Amino acid sequence: MRQSMEMLVCLLLVAFGDCLARGVEIESPPATVGKYEKLELIIRVDSRYDNPFDPDEVDLAVLVETATGRQIVLPAFFCQDYQRRRLDKGRNRANWYYPLDAGTWKVRFAPMEMGAHVLTARLKDRKGVRQSQAVRFNCVASSSKGFLRASPEDPRFLSFTEGHPFFVIGQNVAFVGESQYVNLTKAERIFARLSANGANFVRIWTCCKDWAMAIEARKSAWDRSWSRNAPIVPVPGGGDAANRCVEISGAERASVNVSPSHPVALRPETGYVLSGRFKRRGEAALRVEMTHDADTSDFEAAAEDQWTNVTCRFVTGANDRWLGRLALSKIGSGTIWVDSLSLKEVGGETELLWEADVNRPARGHYNQLDCFMLDELVEAAERNGIYLMLCLITRDLYMKDLADPASADYEQAVRDARNLMRYAVARWGYSTNVAAWEYFNEIDPGLPTDRFYDEVGGYLEKIDPYRHLRTTSTWHPSAKDCRHRRLDVGQLHHYMRPQTKEDYKDEVEVLIGKTRFLREHAPSKPVLIGEFGLANPKWGLSEDMKRDSEGVHFHNCLWASAFAGSSGTAMFWWWDQLDRQDAYHHYRPLSIFLADVSFAGLKPIEATASDARLRAIGYQGRDRAYLWLSNKNAIWWNLAVDEQQPADISGATIEIEGIDPGTYNVEWWNTFEGKTILNQRVSLAKGPLRISVPSLARDIACRITPVP
Predict the structure, then answer these.
(1) In what order do the strands lie in the sheet with 308-315?
(2) Within its chain, how far is the Cα of 457 from the centroid?
(3) What is the CATH number for 571?
(4) Residue 45 in contact with residue 24, Cβ under 8 Å?
(5) Do residues 527 and 415 share a domain?
(6) pTM of the shown model
(7) What is the pLDDT of residues 624-644, one digit of tens each?
């Protein structure tokens, strides 16, 4: 009897274990994965969820045990995969994205320790907690330098986890979308151009609302964020003001166009079904107008204030790859309301017209096509050695809720932001080329955001095993954000505008001043000028930038910001203008000069020039110095606007205090060609180090290093 009971218990345990395995199953990994390299696995789950992005509804994570016994809880993520093709769409090159399935669960992981790893998927939902069987892989050596950090040698600068220093050289490519100057294909080409010229850093927005890529934003087939006459209204007689639909009213034959911000891709020679429902008041009927040859006609409602279903079927032609014109019209007098508009393949599950859902929340749901675009951008960055600062949170969805830290709205904003950051960690955190999470672009610096950054930052410390850098930006410089303990990178934005002539004319002095502010309030962390450029009084592109076809201000901004105390170059904003002017070559000389240079442990240079026209900035230690000398008259205004060439400066010297006695190599560099133009050897017995400056008209760079 006892043996029978034991056998029964064993059978039940085996059956229960099989049930758990059927509930959640993780794909087997390859036998080996390189250190810091991407491991992506599919996780099969036996349930469907209303909102797979809400961890309160479904919390899927992977438990990782490393060779040293470290325990990591890594969030998994739900995603919609797409097929991508580059096609002609009218006169423009376009990216064609087509969903491959109804969505799947994945985990992405970059191992950071050598040796054996054990992975187990854990699913928490309304059914309880279930775990998969364990899978294993071995982490082996790779050539990766790891993730970017504040340098342990000098926290003012950046380095990789494997110890290599990193200095930011880059710009913004903020808006990426099919309606923008930069679409995904163009962005990939720009990454390649930047890399070929020595740049290594790009700031990307994933918070562009509906004009470009935005992970969390209201994208609508019915209107745009700048529209004032949206046809979206509460459902009549619905009793719930939050439940909305589309209204067509006014004159007979009034219509609305169904125009998603993402062009809707179709497959050739494929059957589709367009469906929805409508109700009427008055004598109005609904007409569906399509470019495609669909079985459409006028649809009559059975009775007033009752929903009537609508279905239209069509088959695409041999060359059809896009949804053409789609309009809904009201025929006759009265009003029509439309709801639940949907487009799917015949027999398919995947929604193609997701932007038609007017009840889709803007916060807490993540636009999967935009997420796929970011996947592609991250991979392009990896191919080209570009590191990304991702501006993630759509500011205007959150800013109004951050006025009162004691309010329920503030609490909800923190919760939603934590969920978004969880998704970002799960989907893109694996990549060593994701350098930093930037919460907001230019949020109001007067808001009480300390609690927000504290709680969201503390949450990231728990769930982001890679410890990505965290930063934010405000529309005026914010000392409190520079000082915040859970913001790892101090940042400000600045545009030179003609209201203040001195500010507008001398780009070098402006950058020295802005960097001084950052260093005053963030003396022991990396700092960046995240946006910079010439602007008109209304913050648009300055016509003067177009006049500066040689890129004098761009050249000066790169070198000045690199030597003024920042952790990288000022990140220029007008990426489309830089591309039109093919200005990427300006990065190369600076990147060559800095290729084997580290500013870690050095202090601002103490240099005095014999000629008052010379301006010297840079870094020095006891036995070395790196500096940039510029002619104060060689500012962009004088050269590009007044068209005055500065006179040469000859016979000048500079003296540098604080250098130890010894013999030094002095290399003078052409900053436009990235080449050494003169080598000197100087001996110092005591006092300041005095060196002669070659004749220059604009600027020159210098390296001073000890003779071995």
Answers:
(1) 232-234, 244-248, 334-345, 271-282, 308-315
(2) 17
(3) 3.20.20.80
(4) yes
(5) yes
(6) 0.95
(7) 999 999 999 999 999 999 999
